[in-house]
Amino acid sequence: MSSSINKQFNEVRTHLRLHISEWTNVFEVSRKTILEWITGESKPSEVHAARIQALMELITASFDDPAEDFIARTYLIQEIDILGEAPIDSFKGPIEHMVNNRTLEQTLNMVSKRSMEQYRRTTRLDNESEYAEWNLDYNLRRILD
Fold this sequence. Notes:
Elements: H1 4-15, H2 20-27, H3 31-39, H4 46-62, H5 73-77, H6 87-92, H7 95-98, H8 102-124, H9 130-144
Helix pairs in contact: 1-4, 2-3, 4-8, 8-9
């Protein structure tokens, strides 16, 4: 029963690394509903499908390499000065606020690059390394300044 919109939702989830509980807040649905979308047991409503498509358009417009880039959850849930809110809050608002929003696109592009840089660095470091934790904190301070 999995449809193209379910696949698109899973692709959005791959790029925007949020917890299921955060997706429930974005779409204002239950955890069970999100899990059903993920597994293909049910399809999102037209309203939710429109939000998923808007998120996909935002990813395509924001990422240098939409096939591989992603944004770490940490960058999505913290307020970013230029936006005046956390990116996740932009995802909850009116769809028109997401689509063709150059500030949001540029911000997501920047945090995507930071996420990818961090990912590349941490894959080279031992996961238990204190340096890896410090490095993530340093990157967060750089983006929030």
